[in-house]
Amino acid sequence: MQTFRLTTYNIHKGMSPLNRHLRLDAIAQALRTLDPDILLLQEVEGENLHRKFKFNTHPQQTQYEYFGEYLALNASYGKNAEHSGRHHGNAVLSRFPLDPKHNVNISVNRLEQRGVLHCEVLPEGWAQPLTVLCAHLNLREADRQRQYDAIEHYVRRTIDPAAPLVLAGDFNDWQMRSQRSLGQWLGMEEVFDSRFGTMPNTFPASLPVLSLDRIYVRHLHVLSCEVHQGLPWSKLSDHLPISAVLKAA
């Protein structure tokens, strides 16, 4: 396989934008239409005892296991935030062999517990694995700058500079002040910025006016990229998903 489709999506813990309805089934059905080879999810619940009792359609398995089974993808989960009876984090799902490596804690305060899930996947026909980093960053610019420093340090210390690399997720860069910083530091390009010179609005899903979600790549060719908007996406989560079709450089 020479190309693959990668999608990143903040699923809002499987709830509708205003937290009134459980949308796991509808999200899974919509994601199936995208047919991603690699799927990065943020705000994935590993456990929520209250919602299991409240919603009779809530699966008994974890959300990442549910999506993995429904979409026939291998799945890995990194727990970021833990509370009484519930916890959530990031997940990486892959059609290819998946090797979980590390969940990097990039939290800078107690209110926003954040992380970067590091996995490797081996697309069909590739001689070396693809490094995948699934990230969820803070709302404040000052916090994100500290998290950029932590991610840069981790990548430089841990990841082979010659390896193909994807860093994607919810960056919460709503003020558009730092969309190029991390890419410049690590020699990565953001797929929408490189192709169109601008970033797509992905939040709120019903009337997107803010650009929060990113796909950074290194040693990969960007063949296409798109933001998935309109129905059903506007009714599923508070974010819109974005995708890119990529090829080894």
Question: Could you characterize the architecture of this molecule?
Answer:
- This protein has helices at 24-34, 49-54, 63-71, 141-158, 181-186, 191-196; strands spanning 3-10, 38-48, 74-83, 86-94, 98-105, 115-121, 130-136, 165-170, 189-190, 213-218, 220-227, 242-248.
- With 249 residues, the chain is an alpha+beta fold.
- Strands 3-4-2-1-12-11 form a six-stranded mixed beta sheet. A six-stranded mixed beta sheet has the order 5-6-7-8-10-9.
- The longest helix has 18 residues, at 141-158.
- The two termini are 13 Å apart.
- The model has no long low-confidence stretch (mean pLDDT 92).
Gist of the model:
The protein is α+β, with helices and mostly antiparallel strands and 249 residues long.
